[in-house]
Amino acid sequence: MSEGTESAALAELAKRRGFFFGSSEAYGGVGGFYTYGPQGAALKSNVEEAWRDRFAVQEGNLEIEAPTIMPEPVFEASGHLDGFDDMLVECAECGESHRADHLIEDNSELEDAETLSPEEAAEKIADLGLVCPNCGAELAGQSVEEFNLMFGTNIGPGSKTPGYLRPETAQGIFVEFPRIKEYARNRLPFGVTQVGRAYRNEISPRKNIVRTREFTQAELEQFIDPERDEPDLSSVEDVEVRLYPATEQQDDDGDYLDTTIGEAVDEGIIANGWVGYYLGIAQEWYEHIGVDMERFRFRQHLPGELAHYAADCWDAESEVDGDWIEIAGFAYRGDYDLSKHGEHADDDFTVFQQYDEPKTVERAVVDPDMATLGPEFGAQAADVAEALETLAERDPDAFDADEVTLDIDGEAVTVDTDVANFSVETQTEAGEHITPHVVEPSFGVDRTVYTLLVHAYEQDEVDGEARTFLSLSPTIAPTNVGVFPLVSNVDELVDLADDVAEELRAAGFAVVYDDSGSIGRRYRRQDEVGTPFCVTIDRDGIEGAGDTTVTIRERDTGRQVRVPVDSLVETFVGLRAGTTSFDDVLDANEVVEA
């Protein structure tokens, strides 16, 4: 399909066949919100379950489900109130708001306009002579402003308890860390996953379900001790990946690096082993669920793109309609999140790590004379005592002088050192409290669904007629099997078809039963929604000598094979899991000419 037509063709099919469509259309609709129809809801659920199986179950990670609304202090601590912004430019003529970096990228060769400052973006808009996409008015001279993307609300009556819809699922994990660490027996490393909704008040939602205001994330927060914990790369070191490092993006002649995870980590291209580990797992997972690997890459964030919490980040990107879209991010967040919540919240966001052998250390300590500090500093006495303890840890030599100077709420105060009762003690320690670092693979479920649909969209010709089909993997296809009696007026065929459908459903397969219209049209209906296999019950299967048989038809090629009814469930179990190929089924049974 030619560039620029995929989105339109897919949107038409998605609406007609029940994958996704704009929400609240009976009331005029609202941008950035979509409803998943029966096919889309099933596909999305299958993607989520496939992710959960690989990143939670197989990795031995915990899973939680946190609320989607959280109180304002959470986002003050996390930095989202100050740093979760996009650049907005408003048309003076029609009042329509647009995302400035998207306008620049859509009308120039610049691919990283989000790294520009608002002032630089405004200059670029003027230099390019950009106009409002809505009314055509010139945008030169219009200011570019930072716009916070969070949806605000009030918790309970009145406005005493402001809150926000979460812009990412991660904060629900970080906030609950003091309790979750107990479930992990306070042993690092451990991972916590969550699949759920997030909300961002996008300036200009676009590309169907690619950029919406409500979406689903599947996130994993891997908590590690950076001094002790290293991933075992043996299972992914030979996984081949296509990387687009920041250095190559900044080079006029830059290109992709086709390498392996092991080589990329060894050479420092991927700086963090944990990030490399999850890139390797993700590469195999995306291929397993049906992403076209020829239209897939991992791109490193440029310095100006990095989120406020990230020390390094790589995006998994898929090519759609000639553009590359982010479908997952893999960030090394350091100890930013837990440290921030540790500063703001009334709980412990550290983990006690026991030493292999007890250590004898010298510690600078103070034992402030509160009988002196109280009368001298009044209500500030406790703050002064705490400041003395902090100074002893940071700069014990300061207590060699007769007095020390402290900063108490911006005010400089002096304290005689003899009042601090400073000393250096020898202590035996069994371990230490550390703030874990975080490695975060974060997947956009909706964007993954969209990628799968675009990459699966195929057109060909069968028996002289044009055919559209979705070449979805059996692992995630919304319907696994279509069951068709060849004709609907023969009781034996209908009864057997009913039995087959019931048996497959009991075995956990999503089955559609269809006895309406010609067999060719029934096939086409299932092809168009991505059903990988259809079972046809005909007279030959029930009247021939030997076992009762049915015909299995493969979607992509139209090949058919006759299989005994008794082995049908076992055959489909293997086909769905990928342990059996259709060629294996053809080799073991009677091939039927289409």
Automatic annotation (TrEMBL):
GO terms for biological process: glycyl-tRNA aminoacylation. Pfam families: HGTP_anticodon, tRNA-synt_2b. Keywords: Aminoacyl-tRNA synthetase, ATP-binding, Ligase, Nucleotide-binding, Protein biosynthesis. Residues 6-474 form the Aminoacyl-transfer RNA synthetases class-II family profile domain. It is an enzyme of class 6 (ligase). Its EC number is 6.1.1.14. One of its GO terms (molecular function) is glycine-tRNA ligase activity. The keyword Heme does not apply. It is found in: Cytoplasm. InterPro entries: aa-tRNA-synt_IIb, aa-tRNA-synth_II, aa-tRNA-synth_II/BPL/LPL, Anticodon-bd, Anticodon-bd_dom_sf, Gly-tRNA_synthase/POLG2, GlyRS-like_core, tRNA-synt_gly. GO terms for cellular component: cytoplasm. Belongs to the class-II aminoacyl-tRNA synthetase family. This is glycine--tRNA ligase. The lineage of its organism: Archaea, Methanobacteriati, Methanobacteriota, Stenosarchaea group, Halobacteria.
